[in-house]
Structures are given as structure tokens and as C-alpha cells.
Amino acid sequence: MDVSELRIALFSGNYNYVRDGANQALNRLVGYLLKRGAEVRVYAPVVENPAFPATGDLVGIPALPIPGRAEYRIPLMLSPQARRDLHRFKPNLIHVSAPEILGHSAVSFARRNKLPVIASVHTRFETYPRYYGLAFLEPTVTALLRRFYRRCDAIVAPSDSMAQLLREQRMNYDVGIWSRGVDREIFAPEKRSMEWRRGLGLADSDVAIGFVGRLVMEKGLDVFADTIDELERRGVRHRILVVGEGPAREWFERRLPNAVFAGFQAGPDLGRAVASMDMLFNPSVTETFGNVTLEAMACGLPVVAAIATGSESLVSEGLTGRLVRPGAISGFADALENYITDPHQRAAAGQAGAKAADRYSWDAINGALASTYLRIVRQRQGGGGPPRRSPVP
């Protein structure tokens, strides 16, 4: 069996209606599989004006806006039309990308029809409650995630550190890696534009600390702002450049009144924006990989990040950046101050990061996942059964 014999039904709660690193990775994966001759059908919510065109055939799934976060939608169970389409498509593998209602429905469909299932893990959902004053729910959410992932034949994580965490959390007994790649035609040191910086009011001598991502609290915006307050108390001269949009923008603007907000950027514009920073500060602990961290490294920036899944697999402490205990404001400020005041260290870390980013080729990464697909399908064809239900402690 080879890739051209795969018939994959992919289930996603957000395939293209809001742009983020996870759904861009899924679209790249589908493009790769189609080029290799596989057949792929995507089941996901659709909207009138999606953030970007979908790659491959997309079958709409009913969904409701999330209260308070209307830009996101909660996909519901498989509709009768989607079920009929699934039966006509006759997949030989199910891929689920999120543990929501649609994901549960897809896993149940697979088990009823004796189909293998792979789940990709894109974010640390169990950490979200802590950003909304509900940290006491974290053990419950972790247990629910474990119940979901143990019903799958295998799960894949985007980094070694995330895979190890999933093993420690006993999410599944077959944990593999589906990493992320970076487009070096977009993200590269030579994309830096002093003219673009000047247009935003940044002087050539300004040292710009960058933030890149959706402006939502779970990205660590509070830690970012508190750290900048500490730099200001120390009298360390710097500028802040924020790239991204989101529901917390107004809050972030109030907390950082002197920051430059460049708004949403994509494609070559995003590459230019990242390369025009002087360092990236990523305090988030919710990412499982950290696309923005890799993109910043590819642009030749040192990265100051929290010791968290994803970042600790990408950033080499003291070589390509600094890793700091999550929430340690003084530690983050120390690391940033070091790069602000020492241009030679800043340049050396950036050069090391750009070299390290060369290892991340999209075709090699997606090819590795295709190999995992084939292994799981062969295991089932060889007589391996679906995962047994196991008690969740």
C-alpha cells in the first residue's frame, strides 16, 4: 500500500474560516496528500467569507458561534447529508483535529465502521480554563481529553516536548510526531524592511520587541504586558511591535499605550513584519508547537519564550534564544534586556536560529505523517483491532 491508495476523511472545527497556524498546517497537509495521489474529503464548518480558500473538497458541517467569541464556531454532530457523503466517499482512514462534538462524532462513526482513526493535537485545551478564572476545571478537562484520545488508534503531536507531555498524561499508547514547517521564501532575514519600520514610526536605532499571533488572553498577553512594565521600571529603552488581531486587542492597546499595532499580516507581508522586528517575545504556554517561534527564528531573530511544549523543542537555551519559567516576569525581563543592550548577542542568536530553521521542510514533515497513516492502516488490515475502551483515572 502507498499514499495514492489512501482515502482520508479529515474533520476540523476550523479548516479555513479563521486563520491560525493549525488550520494552515492542515491545508498544507491536504495539498501534499492530493499531490501524492491520495483522496481527501474535509468535513468542517463553512462561512460566507472565510479567511482563506480551502484546499481540497470541503463538506459543510452545521455550527454555532461561540458565545463571547463569535469569530469561532462550535461544529455540531455529523448531519444526515454529511453521513451520506461519508458513506459514498468510503474512507479507509479518519483524521480528527480537535476533541469537540464533531471530533467525537467522527470517532464514533469510525468505530462503528471499523475504520482506523488518527488525532492530531494542535493546542493545549486543558490550559484554557486558567485564563478565564476557571483553573479548577483543568483536571476535569484533562480527563475528558484522555477519554477522547484513547478512542483513537494513534495521536500525533507537533513537537517532541508535546509528545512527551501526552505520554505523561496517558492520552494514548501510540504517540507520534507531526511537526511544522516554515516557508523560507517568506520567512528569511533578508525580508527585513527599514522602510516599513519607518512607516510605523520606528526609528532605525529602535530595538523592537515583537509579538505575533491572535490577540487572545490565552496567548499570554498579561505576562507580556507585565514584562514590558518591568522593562520600563528598569529604564531599558525599547519599542513594542504587535502583529495580529483578535478580541483582546482593545485590552492590549490599553495595557501597552506606546506599542505599535501593525494589525493582521499574512504571506509575504507577515514575513516582512517578523523580519523587521529585533526579537520575538512569546510567553504563551498553550501552543503545542509555536509556528511564530519557528518563523521568527527563520527570520534571524532571537526568541525569548516560556519553557513550554513547542518552544522548548525549538529554542536552544542560550544559543537561539532564552527559555524562561512560565509567568516569571523578572526572568523574561532579564532575557529581553540582555538582547536589547547587547547587539552582538542578539545577532549571534538570530544567526543560529536561522540556521536551525533550515531543518524544517514541509514536504518532509507531511511525508512523515503520511507514513504514519500507512502504518496505522496496515496494522488494521493485518488484524489489529480498534483501541479498547479503558478506564480514565
Entry keywords:
393 residues; alpha/beta; Rossmann fold; seven-stranded parallel beta sheet; six-stranded parallel beta sheet; 15 strands; 17% strand; Glycosyltransferase_grp1; Glyco_trans_4-like_N; glycosyltransferase activity
Folded structure, characterized:
The chain is of the alpha/beta class. It has two domains: 3-181 and 361-381, Glycogen Phosphorylase B (Rossmann fold), CATH 3.40.50.2000; 189-357, 3-Layer(aba) Sandwich (Rossmann fold), CATH 3.40.50. The protein is 39% helix and 17% strand. The protein contains 14 helices and 15 strands. The strands form three sheets. It has a seven-stranded parallel sheet with strand order 3-2-1-6-7-8-9, sandwiched between helices. Strand 10 (208-212), helix 7 (221-234) and strand 11 form a beta-alpha-beta unit. Helix 1 crosses helix 14 (362-381), helix 10 crosses helix 13 and helix 12 crosses helix 13 (343-357). The radius of gyration is 21 Å and the shape is globular. The model has no long low-confidence stretch (mean pLDDT 92).
